[in-house]
Automatic annotation (TrEMBL):
Keywords: Apoplast, Glycoprotein, Manganese, Metal-binding, Secreted, Signal. The lineage of its organism: Eukaryota, Viridiplantae, Streptophyta, Embryophyta, Tracheophyta. Residues 1-44 form the signal peptide. This is Germin-like protein. May play a role in plant defense. Probably has no oxalate oxidase activity even if the active site is conserved. It comes from Sorghum bicolor. The keyword Transmembrane helix does not apply. Oligomer (believed to be a pentamer but probably hexamer). The keyword Glycoprotein applies. Pfam families: Cupin_1. It is found in: Secreted, Extracellular space, Apoplast.
Length: 267
């Protein structure tokens, strides 16, 4: 009698599957996995697969295409030369690299221009393991399990930092040169939810934002306008005192909302 923890079951008598039927069942299961992995399907995590890997539907009719090229991805670095004035990221998830379907792994290459940030965000379906390979990064994690405690670290080349799944985190290059890093994810489709974008660029009613921030319409408008402008690395240009006060209030509101969102993930 198999134990409850066993991943397979044995059958006897009339319940036994003939080898041919068993093979047909496994093939059908593999096809169903492909269907469930199609874009547009919402998943909380990667499903367990019954085969070593999943063959995309468009390759099922031509198995000869399953070769070394199928298991190779060459654009993670080559397609991200990096702009010294921006933060840029390229991904190797199941969307870009179909061989990752069902493998519960993916990667990203991040290039940080001087003074740029990867804004507070979460990955709903995966933990992230980040390693710095050039320069230095200041990173932060909002610990939802400890009432929103903020954990920070300054990483040098060769250092690693783990961001648990679903927790708010960010990275920042506070130096004067370019910083580079690679991230590994425990999902072929980790997902990214950028808090500034999701909160201020998705059409949430301004009144809701005002009440959530305990602020006014002018601050909400300033936040939305600020997000629509290209980021400017390094020190900000001189501004009049009124403009500084307004921008400061907007950024303070953004910080408050990020922390509030972190708490909401626990409650």
């Amino acid at each position: 009698m198999p134990r409850a923890s066993d991943h397979s079951c044995s059958y006897s008598g009339s319940m036994a599957l003939a080898p041919g039927l068993r093979h047909l069942f496994l093939c059908a299961a593999a096809v169903l996995l492909v269907v469930h992995q199609l874009p547009g399907c919402a998943r909380a995590s990667d499903p367990d697969i019954l085969t070593d890997y999943v063959v995309p539907r468009d390759l099922l009719a031509d198995p000869s295409q399953i070769n070394g090229t199928f298991f190779t991805y060459t654009r993670l670095v080559s397609s991200n030369a990096g702009d010294p004035a921006k933060f840029t990221v390229t991904k190797a998830t199941a969307a870009e690299f179909p061989a990752l379907l069902g493998q519960s792994v993916s990667s990203a290459a991040l290039v940080f221009g001087a003074g740029t940030v990867n804004p507070p965000h979460i990955h709903p379906r995966a933990s992230e393991l980040l390693v710095v390979v050039e320069g230095a990064l200041f990173v932060g994690l909002v610990d939802a399990a400890r009432n929103g405690t903020l954990h920070t670290a300054t990483l040098q080349a060769g250092d690693m930092f783990v961001f648990p799944r679903g927790m708010v985190h960010f990275q920042s290059n506070d130096g004067t040169g370019v910083a580079r890093a690679f991230s590994a994810f425990g999902s072929a489709s980790p997902g990214t939810i950028s808090l500034p974008t999701e909160l201020f660029e998705t059409g949430i009613d301004d009144t809701v934002l005002e009440k959530s921030f305990h602020t006014d319409q002018a601050t909400v408008d300033a936040l939305k306008n600020d997000l629509q402008q290209p980021p400017v690395p390094g020190p900000a240009p001189p501004q009049d005192s009124a403009g500084v006060a307004l921008l400061g209030g907007a950024r303070l509101a953004a910080a408050m909302l990020c922390v509030g969102t972190a708490f909401s993930l626990v409650l």
